[in-house]
């Protein structure tokens, strides 16, 4: 059938069209119907299905994660209890405000006892947290390598928590070493400081309401 024959077909008399033309027209109509259905109806449903499948995967992952946590809940509680006990034990090692002067004296005597020369021993500004106060001390001492090492060892063996950080070593005269460092000590909060923290937390909760 030629193109002219197709043009001469009467749309009102489709029942008498050649069988090939009828089948072709039917296929075209089906294709257009399916395409229209996809773009206007099915595409939204497909997107909704994909979103549902993604949500299902996420929920399964969350369920497995929560199930693992539930299985290990007793172990987690035990670990938390041990951490709290360890932290409580550490807090008990902290000196109070009145004991800080004694601790500073012990640190200074540890250096002097090793024959070190203190060029700087300067307490810095305290840093307060909800549990304790960090008290940094800037030091600069000069002595032999052996004496400096012994001093660091003595600091580590003090009954209180003392941390040596920001250490810088340089050579001085007479084959001696000069060490600059920050000694961080910690003390417990006194009652006035605890009361101030409680009041600040209470005021913060009121503002949130």
TrEMBL record:
Residues spanning the signal sequence: none
One GO process term, biological-process aspect: type IV pilus-dependent motility
UniProt KW keywords: Membrane, Transmembrane, Transmembrane helix
Keyword Membrane attached: yes
InterPro entries: PilO, Transl_elong_EF1B/ribsomal_bS6
Residue intervals passing through the bilayer: 20-41
Name assigned to this protein: Type 4a pilus biogenesis protein PilO
Organism whose genome encodes this protein: Deefgea piscis
Organism lineage string: Bacteria, Pseudomonadati, Pseudomonadota, Betaproteobacteria, Neisseriales
């Amino acid at each position: 059938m030629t193109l002219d024959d197709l043009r001469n077909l009467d749309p009102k008399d489709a029942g008498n069209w050649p069988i090939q033309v009828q089948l072709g027209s039917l296929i075209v109509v089906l294709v257009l119907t399916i395409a229209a259905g996809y773009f206007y109806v099915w595409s939204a449903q497909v997107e909704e299905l994909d979103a549902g499948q993604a949500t299902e995967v996420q929920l399964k992952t969350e369920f497995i994660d929560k199930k693992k946590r539930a299985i290990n809940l007793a172990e987690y509680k035990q670990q938390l209890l041990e951490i709290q006990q360890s932290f409580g034990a550490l807090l008990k090692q902290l000196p109070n405000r009145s004991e800080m002067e004694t601790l500073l004296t012990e640190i200074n005597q540890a250096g002097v006892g090793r024959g070190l020369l203190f060029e700087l021993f300067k307490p810095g500004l305290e840093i307060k947290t909800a549990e304790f106060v960090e008290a940094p001390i800037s030091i600069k001492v000069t002595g032999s390598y052996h004496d400096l090492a012994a001093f660091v060892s003595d600091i580590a063996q003090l009954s209180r928590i003392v941390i040596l950080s920001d250490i810088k070593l340089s050579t001085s005269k007479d084959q001696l070493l000069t060490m600059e460092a920050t000694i961080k000590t910690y003390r417990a909060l006194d009652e006035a400081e605890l009361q101030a923290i409680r009041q600040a937390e209470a005021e913060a909760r009121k503002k949130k309401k």
